[in-house]
Design goal:
The protein is of the alpha/beta class. The protein is 34% helix and 17% strand. It has one domain: Phosphatidylinositol (PI) phosphodiesterase (TIM Barrel, Alpha-Beta Barrel), CATH 3.20.20.190. It is built from eleven helices and nine strands. Strands 1, 2, 3, 4, 5, 6, 7, 8 and 9 form a nine-stranded mixed sheet that branches. The longest helix is centred in the middle third of the chain and has 12 residues.
């Protein structure tokens, strides 16, 4: 049985509020191979870690992330909504800059999966801002990743976004995420600009052959979001290369790595 890489989906987000520093630090302590985050641009051009386009589900704010400044987002409570919220709420949205700093200071090698969210009113600026930030941290190249100990892989459901990253930063690995796809993708072919395939677990249950077909073409497969024990067993049996989970500690335990 293969031993895939284990990634914390939005941090250890079953136990703690997603996309908070607490959730990511817990995942690092649990021994994950890497962290996963979603990024969006604020009105004043900062990349922040949040899945939804709107604020209502994961904060006490209202409106769209893209319509507010970082200063405005920094006044909101992003943790009290969660049943595992800490006694003291985590105030302020997590920036990608801070998450990168946290990963770099972890004291061990880590991988970071960054999903750029589209559609976005800012279009290509999302990927352009991401590459600029990674460049400031020295993480836009393979050499920088080796030197600093953090490898960044960019993911998106948007084929155009994946191609942008290939143009802007050819060294960065890329993942094409999908639930529904063209016949060529189901045949294991990564779209132009993508290095890896990233099927959702619901889709994979019905089309398990995509893993074998991708591997036959030399393409690795990362699967999201794998939480249920039966799904963990499925992806292990299929020999996937990466498992993205809200419950990474449970996946690590199944692999005998805790």
């Amino acid at each position: 049985m293969t031993r895939p890489l284990v990634f914390a989906h939005r941090g250890s987000s079953a136990a703690l509020p997603e996309h908070t520093l607490l959730a990511y630090r817990r995942a690092i302590d649990e021994g994950v191979d890497g962290l996963e985050c979603d990024v969006r641009l604020t009105r004043d051009g900062h990349l922040v870690c949040i899945h939804d386009a709107s604020l209502q589900r994961t904060s006490n704010g209202h409106g769209r992330v893209s319509g507010l400044t970082l200063a405005e987002l920094s006044e909101l409570d992003f943790s009290s909504w969660h049943p595992g919220a800490p006694p003291e709420p985590e105030i302020g949205i997590l920036t990608l800059d801070r998450l990168l700093t946290t990963a770099l200071s972890a004291g061990r090698p880590l991988r970071l999966l960054v999903e750029t969210k589209h559609p976005s009113r800012y279009g290509a600026r999302v990927e352009e801002s991401l590459v600029q930030l990674l460049t400031r941290h020295g993480l836009h190249s393979a050499a920088g990743a080796r030197q600093r100990g953090v490898t960044v892989t960019v993911m998106s459901f948007s084929p155009l976004a994946v191609r942008r990253i290939r143009t802007l930063a050819p060294d960065l690995p890329t993942v094409f995420l999908f639930e529904w796809a063209t016949p060529s993708v189901w045949d294991g072919r990564a779209p132009a600009g993508a290095d890896l395939l990233g099927p959702g677990i619901k889709a994979l249950r019905n089309r398990t052959e995509v893993v074998r077909r991708a591997h036959d073409r030399g393409t690795e497969v990362y699967v999201w979001t794998v939480n249920e024990p039966a799904d963990v067993e499925l992806v292990l049996r299929l020999g996937v290369d990466g498992v993205i989970s809200d419950r990474p500690a449970e996946v690590l335990s199944r692999l005998g790595r805790r």
